[in-house]
Amino acid sequence: MTIATGQDIEAADVLALTDDSKVLSHSRVLTAASGDVAYTGYGFQPKTIIIFGTKGGSTASWGVADTNLAEMCIYSYSTDIYVANTGAIIYIDTTTGTVQSAVLKTFDADGFTLTWTKTGTPTGTDITFMVLAFGRA
Description:
Blueprint: H1 11-16, E1 20-28, E2 35-40, E3 45-54, E4 60-65, E5 71-76, E6 82-85, E7 90-95, E8 98-108, E9 111-119, E10 127-136
Antiparallel strand pairs: 1-10, 2-9, 3-4, 3-10, 4-5, 5-6, 7-8, 8-9
């Protein structure tokens, strides 16, 4: 392929410009201690992720993060109550003061690492979350 300036573009160059994406499901035990958890299996280093999380349908979280590790989420902790949280990418509030939340620590070669923080003593149904990751393969 030739562009207007007369430079040739190889097929590999075109493929390198193509964004890749993948959706995977993960879970988090509500009683798990605070700490880092690596999530792999994406096949590329993400540059942006979108996370949709829930705890048995009673609380939900929608979060995004970009290559600068800038993140934010919106979460609900009871019927029709939504709160913005710019200090986490996922925030599951099981009852007042009992939370599992995470910040994006790093984008890794095959996924990403979240730093989880457990506040109080959350109990009940574990967290299930879907991640839509964008990057380049």
